[in-house]
Amino acid sequence: MEFDQLWQSALGEIELQVSRPNFVTWFKNSKLIDKKEGTALIGLPNNFAKEWVENKYNKVILGTLRGMDDSTKKVEFVVYNERTAQKPTIKSGTKVAINKNDDFGQLSFSEFKVDQVTNLNSKYTLSSYVVGKSNEMAYAAAMAVIDSVGNKYNPLFIYGGVGLGKTHLMQGMGNEVALKYGGKIRVKYVSSEKFTNDVVWAIRNKRMETVKEKYRLIDMLIIDDIQFIAGKPSTEEEFFHTFNALHENNKQIIISSDRPPKFIPTLEERLRSRFEGGMVVDIGVPDYELRLAIIRSKLQDKKAVLSDEIIDLVANKIQKNFREVEGIINKILFYQSRKNGEITAKNVEEIISESSQEPTKNINPNLIIKAVAEFSEIAPLDLLNKSRKKEVAEARQILMYLLREMLQLSYPHIGRRIGKRDHTTAIYAYEKIAREIQKNPALNQKILIIKELISKG
Amino acid sequence: MNLIILKDNLREGLNTLERAVAESNTLPILKNILIQTEAGKVKLSATNLEIGVTNLLFGKISEEGSVTVPFQALYSIIVNSDTERINLISSGTTLIVKGENYEAKIQGLNPEEFPIIPKINNETNSIEIDPGSFKSGLSDVSIAAHISEIRPEISGILFDFQIGIIKLVATDSFRLAEKTIDHTKFKTNFNQGFKTIIPLKTIQEIMRIFSDTKPIKIYFDNHQILIKNETTELISRIIEGNYPDYEQIIPKNIETEITVKRENLVNALKLVSTFSSKTNDVRLKITENSKAMELYSINQSLGENNYLIPIKSKGADNKSLSFNWRYLLDGLKAIKTEDIFFGINSNNRPALLKSPESRDYFYILMPIKGD
To answer: Thinking of the domain A365-456, which architecture would CATH place it in?
Structure first.
């Protein structure tokens, strides 16, 4: 750059007029930042250098610069830290061993391994994202967004259950964009929780401008688990403004949630309609083939081998929350390395059953009744009496289905408990809902949400 | 310059400056201190260009002036001198030091060559804080800090000023400590929150040079922090960059909650660690129906040992985890209560140490990978 050359030749002259120690100490990392209307602005790395150069070498510098360009009338000085002032470059995929302690097995906070600027974790790449029937739509949309950031599907709204790979897909998109566009597109990944924390901190400390600075000067915002901002008015408000500011400027927004926008309770209408204004795609529960493929890909990453029988067993046993797979594979491999020998199907079953102790903490019929009542906004008593209103009837069938499915209560028991009905009513309700779930994604979604309410108690 | 000063005062002043003096080969004057008369007082200054420290002393001044001489020479004279009153006279760039039966001439440099110690750019806003609380807070968190060239932003302590509280945070990415100082301990006219990172070396100097009794005031601008009491001032650069978002690593739920006598655990760790290997690992295991914790360490060439201490615990049992005992001990030292709350999770998630009663301090720590 022109300023740099000018300053280099000025330094050459200054060096002749100042003693060597002084030159090395005070002019190291100095920089000509700007020059206009006769004023040259010199950046120095710290206040000590600024004070000294300003007081002692003002004339020398002015004289030198004037000798090169006689329009220079004045020199001003600021503290300018090259390292922090430069636009950080994105080093995707570079892994820095934080400390030699890593070798000894001392674990470090994995959250600190994210890129300081983008917040992305480089371990999530699209090349390790396995695509199958249940996520091909989401993947296709993601690829389209990467090709044409901000213009194609904006916002891209991805929803699906826990542990199905939303975060992997979104972070993978972020890493891919950072790599492909070499940092020209500024990416930021943030969890809803973090966004909420930032808003709360800013409100509490009267620094709302920090949120604006942080979230509006980016080109691609990825926000995870948006359902957590629902029902937090100030956060929703701030997110709404952030969303608009970015969207109006064709900046890409990618949002994930455990459910589609219309099923996020207490989400403000104006946000809901904006979320639905782009592309909404879902990631479903992986089918058997995809599960197999994911397990094989994870093994490949670890350069490990397991027999087909074992892989098949794991794929069959773990169906819903695929996040567990990683841990289970690790345990199986650990077991295998320690026992130094064949691992049997029985061992694997033990490992799986001990790992997937889902927190089935004290689910009881009352909890289920409460959750169904809460979700369908029907008084619990109405569910349990003989009302034949249509919406009550449907909620009641869901309730019977859940009592059977989650607690394995007997049909006669369910019938007695829910409005003194016959056991055939309970069987009918269970079978009807079980059948409809297959065909009707909206119903399936409802049931998933109710189950979540139940598990939250 | 001609002045008389009490030896003990001068020695104390020199002590304050000691670590701000630099062994610089490029700029030899950084080995010096500057002695000036200013408004009827004697002012000593030293800087290593990262921090600058000044100290005001009382003295009887008969002639104004200034001089700069090597710190080490003056310091050894004053430490070894047996007279109560010292007479300092400048003659050109030379300093004459006179005691009762003693006289020394120290060759100095031109005081004009001594670096200018910068001023803070915001003198209107400050925090007046109880030095004891501030210093003990710094000392409780700084155990978790570590100077890292790869990650300069964690080579210091986060000073997170919020309306009504100050949070101090330090981490080396293996453990993290947070201290909260509540509003009863400080007064301020800052009306907005801000975050800044103070270099670890500066923190160590703050803890060393400021007394627990004289109130201190803290000032900030975009690049610097200034701490001062009525006699001493320390100005330092701050670390530019963003502190990691550490909130997300604080464990939100704890699988096994243990209450243990602090002294028991400290002693057990010290004893059992005798056999721990280079990694400093000690294995902890909850046994005896969750009523005891076993500490165990093994060294392939030396042997092994174990120790059983009584605990109260709640939550998942059969836990077995390894920790670096030094890290664990650091956290235990910072918590001064009789009982300790020790929350542990699975072997790849952080554990939490705090006092059972107070909420103003916690220490979190990652385990060592093991089976």
So the answer is: Orthogonal Bundle (1.10)
Chain A residues lying within 8 Å of B246, measured CB to CB: 109, 111
- Of A425 and B363, the one with more pLDDT: B363
Contact of B101 with B80, CB cutoff 8 Å: no
User: Is the CB of residue A366 less than 8 Å away from at least one CB of chain B?
Assistant: no
Instruction: Convert the pLDDT of each residue in B290-329 to its tens digit.
Output: 889 999 998 888 899 999 999 999 887 767 899 999 999 9
Q: Do B151 and A98 touch (CB under 8 A)?
A: yes
What local confidence, expressed as pLDDT, does residue A96 receive? 42
d(CA B368, CA B371): 10
What is the share, in percent, of chain A residues with pLDDT greater than 70? 91
For domain A2-85, the question of CATH label 3.30.200.20 is answered with no
Is A204 within 8 Å of chain B by CB?
A: yes
Q: Is B245 exposed, middle or buried, given 0-12, 13-18 or 19+ CB atoms closer than 10 A? A: middle
Please report the ipTM that was assigned to this predicted complex: 0.83
Q: Do B245 and A111 touch (CB under 8 A)?
A: yes
**pLDDT (tens digit per residue) in A38-68:** 899 999 988 999 999 999 999 999 999 998 8
Q: Residue B280 sits in a domain of what CATH number?
A: 3.10.150.10
Q: What is the DSSP string of A200-253?
A: HHHHHTT-HHHHHHHHHS-SEEEEE-GGGGTT-HHHHHHHHHHHHHHHHTT-EE
pLDDT band at A325 (very low <50, low <70, confident <90, very high): confident
What's the CATH code, domain A288-355?
Answer: 1.10.8.60
Helix A233-248 × helix A192-204 angle, to 10° = 110
Contacting residues for B127 by C-beta, under 8 A, at least 6 apart:
B161, B166, B186, B187, B188, B190, B217, B218
On whether residue B68 sits in a domain, the answer given is yes
From A259's Cα to the closest Cα of chain B, the distance in A is: 23
CB atoms within 10 A of CB B191: 9
